[in-house]
Amino acid sequence: MSKSIHSYGLYRLKLEIKNLLKQFLRIQSKPKRDKLLINEIYENIRQQKFENLDSFATPKDYLFDLPYKDQDGRIRYSLLNNKLVDGKTNEVALMILEIIEGIMINSSCEYVVELGSGGGKNLLWFASKYKDIKFIGLELNKTSVDLANTAAKKFDIQNVEFYQCDLTNTHEYKRFLTKKTFIYSHHTLEEMPRIYKIPLNEIKKSDVEIVALLEPIFMFSFSRIILDLAKRLRILNKDRLIGLKKFSKRELSKYFNIELVDLGLGVKPENPTTLLLLKRK
Ligand SMILES: C[S@@+](CC[C@H](N)C(=O)[O-])C[C@H]1O[C@@H](n2cnc3c(N)ncnc32)[C@H](O)[C@@H]1O
Fold first, then answer.
1. Which strand (E) or helix (H) includes residue 80?
2. Residue 162, domain member (yes or no)
3. Which of 130, 219, 231, 262 is most deeply packed, by most CB within 10 A?
4. Rounded Cα distance, 245 and 37, in Å
5. How far is the CA of 138 from the centre of ligand 1 (A)?
6. Position 255 in a domain
7. Which of 191, 194, 214 is the pocket-test mutation for ligand 1 (most atoms within 8 Å of CB)?
8. Greatest alpha-carbon span in the chain
9. For ligand 1, atom 9, which residue shows the shortest CA distance?
10. pLDDT for the residue 2
11. Contact residues of ligand 1, CB 6 A cut-off
12. Distance from Cα 137 to the centre of ligand 1, integer Å
């Protein structure tokens, strides 16, 4: 029988309390999410995907590569309409992409930029469907960029380019921030807890009209109370992004109309995705 959201929340909460105690007693060190650590994490993940690239026949296979079980053999749960579900990780991932796709189509853009494009799976999926739009991926980790460009060649997708760049070096990519560009991020700013304001301030100064940030912004709901507590503790334990909601209201609301949507969706229930939509005033 499938777990309830509360029993899963309790399991996560116990795990996070244990982690907190270990950090407090100095048995486990608290990670400092800086560029060095991020590069190291994604280097390993993307190296493995590079080795498996031949096993993906289409961009769809490349996109939907989330296995039913995790590395430790545990079933992967996800969050769908605020309910815990198993075996639907890829479906949830697709639903989140379809939200981005809907905003992109409505924006009538000519260019699409993904901040932190990773191994390129989202952009390759979009680019294979929308040949008249030019897609640009900006990514810190070189192996990820090489992987994404190699995958684009393998799938013969020509309307996409991936660039290695650090999003805090805004001069490296500000040429892409035009009136005709739609920008989105998908779980990237969460990896930039102290530096996420740098790209957002650059976007604020640019002519870009629409930005969709799909990030695990903390949203509290009584129907998920235990899971939400675990989520909050996880953010602190893992040194993840905090404060994006406040920053947007304080610094961006003068320039953009802001919409914040609790999607009730998450590839990982403890790290669900929220939509922060910015539309130029
Ligand atoms: C969780 S992954 C998400 C990747 C991709 N958006 C996706 O949905 O598959 C976060 C990505 O952000 C990238 N990233 C983190 N900090 C960055 C920075 N300062 N500049 C550019 N990319 C960065 C990481 O290297 C990683 O590939």
1. strand 77-80
2. yes
3. 231
4. 25
5. 8
6. yes
7. 191
8. 56
9. 118
10. 63
11. 35, 38, 42, 116-118, 121-122, 138-141, 144, 166-168, 186-188, 191-192
12. 10
161: left (phi over 0), alpha (psi -120 to 50) or beta: beta
Question: What does residue 80 show for φ and ψ, rounded to 5 degrees?
Answer: -135, 120
Site to substitute for ligand 1 among 95, 113, 139, most atoms within 8 A of C-beta: 139
Residue span of the structural domain in which 58 resides? 31-222+241-280
* Three-state secondary structure call for residue 278: strand
Residue 217 Cα to ligand 1 midpoint, Å, equals: 16
Q: Yes or no: say if 251 and 201 are a contact pair by the CB < 8 Å rule.
A: yes
pLDDT of residue 146: 98
Domain harbouring 193, CATH code: 3.40.50.150
CA–CA distances in Å: residue 185 to residues 164, 264, 265 = 16, 18, 16
Quick check: is 196 in a domain? Answer: yes
The verdict on residue 143 lying in a domain is yes
Distance 9 CA to ligand 1 centre (A): 27
In the chain, the number of structural domains is 1
Across 139-171, b (16+ Cβ under 10 Å) vs e yields bbbebbbebbbebbebbebebbbbbbbbbbebe
Mean pLDDT (10-residue bins), the chain, 281 residues: 84 96 92 95 94 91 79 85 91 96 97 98 96 98 98 97 98 98 98 97 98 94 93 94 96 98 95 97 97
pLDDT at 136: 98
Cα 216 to averaged position of ligand 1 atoms, centre (Å): 14
The phi-psi region of residue 143 (left if phi > 0; otherwise alpha if psi is between -120 and 50; otherwise beta) is alpha
pTM above 0.85, yes or no: yes
